[in-house]
Amino acid sequence: VVVGRGIGSKKNLPLMRKLADALGAELGCTRPVVEAGWLEYRHQIGQTGVSVSPKLLVSIGVSGAIQHLAGIGGAECIIAVNKNESAPIFGVADYGIVGDLYKVTPMLIEAIRAAKAAK
Fold first, then answer.
1. What is the pLDDT of residue 119?
2. Cα-based distances in Å from 67 to 19, 37, 102
3. Cα→Cα distances 25→13, 92, 94, 98, Å
4. String of DSSP letters for the chain
5. Which of 72, 83, 87, 107 is least surrounded by Cβ atoms within 10 Å, i.e. has the fewest?
6. 45-92 pLDDT, tens per residue?
7. How far apart (Å, rounded) are the C-alpha atoms in residues 42 and 50?
8. Residues of the chain with pLDDT > 90: what percent?
9. Are 8 and 61 a contacting pair, CB within 8 Å?
């Protein structure tokens, strides 16, 4: 799960961690999130951070600057959630959700938990 400045503030990180936990995933971020002091540099994904190649990458509130996209090119499947339908992240996403991340993220968490419980 990768978060961008679009999550609004550091106080919204617990919700993003819940999503990562539901997926059994790690939490990463864009450079502006590190620069704002919301997460440490070791979480930064992109040209000036680390490159990742997960089976699934869920991008929440990430605009999709070219420097960030350089770090996620190895992802097999990208799901992007952003309220801006013109965000560049949608150009590389396999699935895109245009919507309010504060409404979409809890629904994703619930759906993931329900799917796991049904197994």
1. 82
2. 24, 19, 26
3. 14, 20, 18, 22
4. -EE-GGG-SGGGHHHHHHHHHHHT---EE-HHHHHTTSS-GGGBBSTTSB----SEEEEES----HHHHHHHTT-SEEEEEES-TT-GGGGT-SEEEES-HHHHHHHHHHHHHHHHHT-
5. 107
6. 999 899 999 999 999 999 988 899 999 999 999 999 999 999 999 999
7. 8
8. 94
9. yes
In which region does residue 24 sit, left (phi positive, over 0), alpha (psi from -120 to 50) or beta (all else)? Answer: left
Strand partners, 63: none
Rounded to 5 degrees, φ, ψ at 5 are: -60, -25
Give the orientation angle of helix 13-23 with respect to helix 101-117, to 10 degrees: 30
- Rounded Cα distance between 79 and 94, Å, is 6
Query: What angle is formed at CA 83 by the lines to CA 96 and CA 30, rounded to 5 degrees?
Result: 80
